[in-house]
Amino acid sequence: MSPRLDVRKTYKLYVGGAFPRSESGRSYEIVDAKGTFLANAAMGSRKDVRDAVVKARAAQGGWATATAYNRGQVLYRVGEVLEGRRDQFIAEVAASEGLTKPRASAVVDQAIDRWLWYAGWSDKVAQVLGGLNPVAGPYFDISAPEPTGVVGILAPQGSSLLGLVSVIAPAVVTGNTVVVLTSEQRPLPAISLGEVLATSDVPGGVINLISGRTAELAPWLASHRDVNAIDLTGAADATDVDWADLEVKAADNLKRVLRPVGTGGDAVEPDWTEQPDLSRIRAYLETKTVWHPKGR
Amino acid sequence: MSKFEYAPAPESRAIVDLQSSYGLFINGEFVDGTGSSFKTINPATEEKLADVSEASADDVDKAVKAARTAYTRVWSRMSGAERGKYVFRIARIMQERARELAVLESLDNGKPIKESRDVDVPTAAAHFFYHAGWADKLEYAGLSPAGSPPPRPLGVVGQVIPWNFPLLMLAWKIAPALATGNTVVLKPAETTPLTALLFAEICQQADLPPGVVNIVTGAGATGQALVEHPDVDKIAFTGSTDVGKAIARSIAGTRKRATLELGGKAANIVFEDAAIDQAVEGIVNGIFFNQGHVCCAGSRLLVQESVADEVVRRLERRMKTLRVGDPLDKNTDVGAINSKAQLQRITELVDAGEAEGATRWTVPCELPARGFWFAPTVFTDVSQTHRVATEEIFGPVLSVLTFRTPQEAVAKANNTPYGLSAGIWTEKGSRILWMADQLKAGVVWANTFNRFDPTSPFGGYKESGYGREGGRHGLEAYLRTGVDA
Predict the structure, then answer these.
(1) Minimum Cα–Cα distance from A140: chain B residue
(2) Which one of A243, A244, A287 has the shortest CB-CB distance to B442?
(3) How far apart are the first and last CA of chain A?
(4) Roughly what angle, to the nearest 10 degrees, separates helices B57-70 and B220-228?
(5) Is A3 a domain residue?
(6) What is the per-residue pLDDT across A156-214, written as a single tens digit (0 to 9) for each?
(7) Does the distance separating the beta carbons of B248 and A287 come in below 8 Å?
(8) Which end of chain B is more exposed for a tag (fewer CB within 10 A), N or C?
(9) CATH for B267-446?
């Protein structure tokens, strides 16, 4: 009896709630930490990025106006489905990042917990970051946070799942939609995350995942005039990417820029195991202040 | 001519002791700059008020060094309570010298004395008062979670402010910077440097440690030298969107932080059920306050079609009562345009409005022979693509557009790359709240307009810039917090 041949997975993009191949027809080889072939990933193009921005824009209004309770429920559901696919992610993270199984398990567990931590913020952010302003006059004057719109994200190159959820969740929890350029060399957990999202009530277009060459795609995302904010975290260790160039492009429409961590011009990948604060949530929020007279 | 003419009621300028020339304020002293000088004039008369130094890059460097030394040796080591007391002192001295500040502001800027006296100066003092109280309470601002280090200042802040509210913008910039423990180098606008220099005297009277506040006067090159100085940790800029973009580009790839308060093209939306006379007052206040030199001015009036004719008729009737002229006259409503260049820009855009087919109506009034003046003007028959409906005019020029449904009002209001402010006029509370949610603007005034308060954050969406000034939110821009602290 011959050994069973395994059924290998085809990794595609995740755009607008669907799983297209790149419109360019290109793919590229993904290898594990030891250089062994893992899969061919779709090699996204400028057009794929632009299509994803269109989907993200279309989805943004509905996602932002969903109740905070509803967004929290949807994101919690993502956590449930992630937990159900825990073994799959452990295998993919282990292969992508060259981790032992126990180490990969710890990373996946923390990624799920991180997702839940952010999910719970959906209906608390406005209370914590908003408030009534005691102006000197007869006015009702209230400030509340609102999502800035469509956020472009360069996902971390090294941390393929924990880093990935740590940059996506804080952006979407408040009602932004995102176009994510996945880790160039480690995109497989991201595409599997897309499968989780597609089956967890997240409206199509809220999270869009594009695998490919960061240096090729990032300039289009950074200069896109319908993108309101960009996270340059993934510029650290990305091949041929200078985050200063991307920040210059982002100035064209005054995108909100979340710079990579590091000192001076150096960009380094943060320690994703550290407990986050609200800074990544706050980076993609606008404060809206509404004044109304008081009187009889 | 109106039925009752007003007698002239000029405010005396004797309270202001103008010097013929002014130096830079660096390290607690007035010093001669190494660059050339320029004159600042009264835009209402074109008379020269004083010669002012144009700070060179070397001067800017000296100011930044002074700010760095003061930050390292004095200001960052001082307790919040002590820092706050200095800021309280400044607020009180501004109140004591309020009349002097108001007269000087109107002389140098051209704004009516009733606005500098009743709005600019008291609000500027209020900003110092509000922020002084924060100095020893920053850990309560909700910016650093339990277990993380308390908020820390950033260091030296470079601040560049515009000419429309010279003293008030100075207060918006300097008060939060000092309260949070930063030191500053501030460049006032080229055409309105005088109240900043008077403020420097106030810092001396308050015994503020040398170098904590430095004032460098000059034009674009001075501002650029400040923005690009490698030892500046944060830039705070208020001005045009074009310059804001240039600043964002110039600090790209650095660790400098920036807050940018930029242009606007606000929609002031009037529904058919609004209290029309109150709305008309709000429209007038929204666009003719401060000669329309207001980034959040309600420059696009969106009126529901069913009441458009009536609103415009009542608006024009109200506009005829606006008194244009001498800024120092206490009865003046609309003063001088701040500069010849700005008058040319307004004129060019108004000409474009006529050429593109909008209908112009200008208040019939006599304008002074000297100085820079523009009579309040309204355009009707405006379409969304006209330049008067898309570009920031920064003058007393209103464009009127119409809409039929709330949804259409939202779509038209948001049809701009700017997102600073908006106004809503309706008696229906549920519609106000719905509209406020839909509008992409940092400040939404409902049944009022152009209200400001130090406790109330201000700032824009989209190309109106990033960051907020004022309130608890404004502190964030001057602090390292949470995991960054």
Answers:
(1) B446
(2) A287
(3) 89
(4) 40
(5) no
(6) 999 999 999 999 999 999 999 999 999 999 999 999 999 999 999 999 999 999 999 99
(7) no
(8) N
(9) 3.40.309.10
Question: Cβ–Cβ of A293/B444 closer than 8 Å?
Answer: no
Residue B179's CB: how many other CB atoms inside 10 A?
A: 28
Instruction: Say what the pLDDT of residue A170 is.
Output: 98
Confidence at B3, pLDDT banded by 50, 70, 90? low
Catalytic residue (choose from B105, B115, B261, B469) = B261
Nearest chain A Cα to B241, which residue?
A254
CATH number of the CATH domain containing A171: 3.40.605.10
Where does the pLDDT of residue B146 fall: very low under 50, low under 70, confident under 90, or very high at 90 and above? confident
Q: Cβ separation of A136 and B476 shorter than 8 Å?
A: no
Distances (CA, A) of B328 to A49, B17, B113, B166, B324: 58, 16, 5, 17, 11
The CA distance from A10 to B61, in Å, is: 59
Q: How far is A205 from chain B (nearest CA, A)?
A: 20
- Interface check for A141 against chain B (CB to CB < 8 A): the answer is yes
Q: Is the model's pLDDT at A218 over the cut of 90?
A: yes
Consecutive H or E run containing B105: helix B98-109
Q: Are A184 and A157 in contact (CB under 8 A)?
A: yes
Q: Hey, is the C-beta of A134 within 8 angstroms of any chain B C-beta?
A: yes
At residue B2 the predicted structure's pLDDT band, cuts being 50, 70 and 90, is low
* Strand ranges across the sheet with B21-22: B21-22, B48-53, B37-41
Q: Which of B473, B475, B481, B484 would best serve as a mutation to test chain A binding (most A beta carbons within 10 A)?
A: B473
B433 burial class (0-12, 13-18, 19+ CB within 10 angstroms)?
middle
Q: Which residues of A touch B441 (CB under 8 A)?
A: 288
Instruction: Measure CB to CB from residue A288 to each of B444, B465, B482 and give the nearest one.
Output: B444
Q: What is the pLDDT of residues A67-110, one digit of tens each?
A: 999 999 999 999 999 999 999 999 999 999 999 999 999 999 99
pLDDT of A284: 98
Q: Is some CB atom of chain A closer than 8 A to the CB atom of B417? A: yes
* Contact assignment for B142 to A128 by CB distance below 8 Å: yes
**Which residues make Cβ contacts (< 8 Å) with residue A177, sequence separation at least 6?**
A56, A57, A59, A60, A63, A149, A150, A151, A205, A206, A207, A208
Give the count of domains, chain A: 1
Q: Confirm or reject contact between B471 and chain A (CB < 8 A).
A: yes
- Residue A129 belongs to what domain range? 10-293
In CATH, the architecture of B21-262+462-484 is: 3-Layer(aba) Sandwich (3.40)
Chain B's closest residue to A228, CA to CA, is B462
Domain boundaries along the sequence of chain B: 21-262+462-484, 267-446
- C-alpha–C-alpha distance, residues B102 and B116, integer Å: 5
ipTM: 0.96
Question: Chain B partners of A279 at a C-beta cutoff of 8 Å?
Answer: 481-484
Q: Do B455 and A292 touch (CB under 8 A)?
A: no
The DSSP annotation for B239-262 comes to S-HHHHHHHHHHTTTSS-EEEEE-
- Mutation pick from B407, B452, B461, B476 vs chain A, by most beta carbons of A within 10 Å, is B461
B463 is catalytic: no
- Judge if B21-262+462-484 and B267-446 fold alike in CATH terms: no
pLDDT, one tens digit per residue, over A43-57 is 999 999 999 999 999
Does the structure show a pLDDT above 80 at B256?
yes
B420, burial (CB in 10 Å: exposed 0-12, middle 13-18, buried 19+): buried
Q: Are A150 and A178 in contact (CB under 8 A)?
A: yes
User: pLDDT for B19-39, tens place per residue?
Assistant: 999 999 999 999 999 999 999
